[in-house]
Amino acid sequence: MSHNSFGHLFRVTTWGESHGVAIGCVVDGTPPGITLSEADIQPFLDQRRPGQSRFTTQRQEPDQVKILSGVYEGKTTGTPISLFIENIDQRSKDYADIAAQYRPGHADVAYDMKYGHRDPRGGGRASARETAMRVAAGAIARKVLGEAVQIRGAMVALGPHRITRTNWDWAEVTKNPFFCPDAEAALEWERILDEVRKSGSSLGATIEISAQGVPPGLGAPLYAKLDAEIAAALMSINAVKGVEIGDGFAAAALRGEENADEMRMVGGQIEFLANHAGGILGGIATGQPILARFAVKPTSSILTPVRSVSAAGQDVEVTTKGRHDPCVGIRAVPVGEAMIACVLADHLLRHRAQNPAIT
User: Fold this and answer.
1) To 5 degrees, how large is the angle CA 151–CA 153–CA 157?
2) 73 burial class (0-12, 13-18, 19+ CB within 10 angstroms)?
3) How does pLDDT run across 166-207, given as a tens digit for each residue?
């Protein structure tokens, strides 16, 4: 299997399967002299870790990260940073019944079409388990970006049920199991997802990520547009089926004067009067907050019987046993943050390489 890496100067390569011995990644391009320890990475992994509420898979993985290389006496050396997480709570027997069946909506059939062979245990390489390493790499990316850049994510819709924007409170995100900024919506979502979970089904979600303090100038006009690479990074996350930057598809319903982010000079500096563009114009960051949203489909592994076919070409009904997220979008919030952090760190290093006078 090729294409297990992303990024250019800040480059991440992940490896491992859901039910393998371990998962890991190698991060290339981290500048030397940055203070880094496992304690800098672990809090972000803890946000994504399974089994923290009844609304996520009950697989119990501590996700304790180990730094194997690239750090000496608490500082990065500039050499590849290798990270390792052991898998300790695999239950491969849960997948025995579907080893020769294709779960509708899952990557099973596509993997067999491409490779003629796959690891059915937990989805193997197609499992969202792989995203733990993206979160770990994202923690390193945040160190490269520095404290001036703040990246935060929130879940803004559970299936068709959306938050009330006027209720937005970032402090609420850490107070409920949904990363939801609307306390009233979070309470309602508990009731809704409990019903869906007990019925053996699942729901999708919409996630919004904000990156503030991003230096203007990151990105490039054509084939390395910052918004294009953010979109590609978010689309690479398991189960993501759509990405918006700024107003996204809603911009198509606006008139030109409504969509234009007008400007004025304030204190000798350019000030934008709106941010429909999501902080990126012509593929280049403007210094405004970067805003991105992505849509996560419902979890494909469900207890509700669904029609499918077997590897032998027979019509079957598939019921997926085991431990699965009734809404995989919940744990996608820290993953989305990490992917944007990695893209921004990569572009920061590329920007400095092209503009050496910039520190």
Assistant:
1) 160
2) exposed
3) 999 999 999 999 999 999 999 999 999 999 989 989 999 999
Q: pTM of the prediction?
A: 0.93
Answer yes or no: are the C-beta atoms of 31 and 80 closer than 8 Å. Answer: no
Per-residue pLDDT at 91: 60
Q: Which two tokens stand for residue 225?
A: 């547009």
Confidence check: pLDDT of 357 > 90: no
Residue where the block lists tokens 């390493």: 133
Instruction: Round the average pLDDT of the chain to a whole number and report it.
Output: 92
- Extract the tokens encoding 113: 């079409």
Rounded CA-CA distance 124/20 in Å is: 8
Share of the chain above pLDDT 70, in %: 92
28 bridge partner residues: 11
* Nearest one of 227, 263, 264, 265 to 246, comparing CA atoms: 227
pLDDT exceeds cutoff 60 at 121: yes
Q: Which has the closest alpha carbon to 245: 264, 216, 225?
A: 225
Residues 206/295, Cβ–Cβ less than 8 Å: yes
Count of all residues that appear for the chain in the document: 359
